[in-house]
Amino acid sequence: QYLARIADQTHLNAFTEVYADEALTRADELDARRVANPDSVGRLHGMVIGVKDVLSHAGHGLRAGSNILNGFTAQFTATAVERLLAEDAIIIGRQNCDEFAMGSSNESSAFGVVCNAADPERVPGGSSGGSAVAVQAGLCLASIGSDTGGSVRQPAAFCGVVGLKPTYGRVSRWGLVAYASSFDCIGPIANNPTDAALLLEVMAGADDFDSTVSTRPVAAYAQAKLPDPTNGGRSMRVAYLVDGVESEGVDPDVRQATQGAIDRLRAAGHVVEPVTLSLLKYLLPTYYILTTAEASSNLSRFDGVRYGYRAQPASDTQTDLVAMYKQSRTEGFGPEVRKRILLGTFALSASYYDAYYTKAQQIRRLIRDETERIFADYDFLLTPTTPTTAFRLGEKSAGAETDPLQMYLADLFTVQANVTGYPAISIPNGTDGVGLPIGIQLMASPFAEENLIAMAESMF
Ligand code: GLN
């Protein structure tokens, strides 16, 4: 069924490769195993999952939406993917994404743009755009994406599905193509919070291959329940960001939908109060200084020697190694990635390090402190996931006349969770005047995924 739908919806460009034969063979194997021993089935038995093209899967291509990985085959399998397979999931293919997960519209992929299934003239969001559209259009049951500044939640919001970014260190990053290592999180995109919770449950937990992963026990997230106030439990305390319902920069339809969610939470008996974030205007600058710095370092490994693409020398006599590096990187990386490598290299250069990198690290700490102060009083922070609904293809993508910062604004509300490492989820919250999905985001304290999922489920 999913393969037929994929074949029917190729114009969406959600998948970069579909493992049709492999998926069918595996489905047969899983069926046979279930018939032979119904008690031995895994928790994801037969669940058809798509994986963003930034996660290694041994023997399969891995491109991170880039030409520089042209011809590259993964040598090992990411821990997250390994755990899905160990619980009997079926991986149906690799999904299109912005190059090296850099983008908010899925327009920077070497495999071309992905279209939003709600309106193919519009972007799906990014960078996990293919993964969100695949769930939206029913091309798989759920997807696995990565979220460095909103890449799971923002496309989930644009496509009307659920996207969950866990606490930093909840899921091993082993086998994830690194963008900004102190921000990167692997997270599920699904039709509902419970499916997302189940996938998180399977992927999360200690891993010898990632020293930043937490050894805290993993709860049964898919069974998470809110305490029942009528039975001795307390009601939840929710803070909402005033800007999300008042700021001129947020679409009126999005503001109204957010206010609607606030009203419903109050009606359900929760305490819902406004808060402000004095450092809001520093979120995006801090995020972009630090992530480009980390990216410039992480992406230095793509040199034309070790992975994928190598530029052909201009002549047989040209054997200059440095020229080969330069040419391979110039040809292999697209414009957004090159821009970020340059920005990050600049921020890390000896004369500017203190002015930019050190300063941004200090502000990161202040943002974390301010966020902690909010969570000393509240269980959740509520915002719209994005200031607007899905914009038109080409509307904000880099061109001489477009302001690149316009695109970055799409992540205004999502980056806080990555700057601080907190978990956050985006769930659908109605549609705008022309029927495009609106998302609402809930953020919770570190490792409070159970509460986060239970609350999301109660609002879903
Ligand atoms: N859109 C943001 C960026 O371009 C976030 C991307 C992400 O989360 N991977 O960096």
From TrEMBL:
Top-level taxon: Bacteria
Pfam family, one: Amidase
Domain Amidase: 1-452
Protein family membership: Belongs to the amidase family. GatA subfamily.
Single Gene Ontology MF annotation: glutaminyl-tRNA synthase (glutamine-hydrolyzing) activity
Assembly information from the UniProt record: Heterotrimer of A, B and C subunits.
Catalytic activity, as annotated: L-glutamyl-tRNA(Gln) + L-glutamine + ATP + H2O = L-glutaminyl-tRNA(Gln) + L-glutamate + ADP + phosphate + H(+)
Location of the active site: 52, 127, 151
Function: Allows the formation of correctly charged Gln-tRNA(Gln) through the transamidation of misacylated Glu-tRNA(Gln) in organisms which lack glutaminyl-tRNA synthetase. The reaction takes place in the presence of glutamine and ATP through an activated gamma-phospho-Glu-tRNA(Gln).
Species this protein is from: Fibrella aquatilis
Gene from which this protein is expressed: gatA
Matching InterPro entries: Amidase, Amidase_dom, AS_sf, GatA
A GO cellular component entry from the record: glutamyl-tRNA(Gln) amidotransferase complex
UniProt xrefs under SUPFAM superfamilies: Amidase signature (AS) enzymes
NCBIfam families tied to this protein: gatA (TIGR00132)
EC code(s) of this entry: 6.3.5.7
GO biological process: translation
Name of protein: Glutamyl-tRNA(Gln) amidotransferase subunit A
Annotated keywords: ATP-binding, Ligase, Nucleotide-binding, Protein biosynthesis
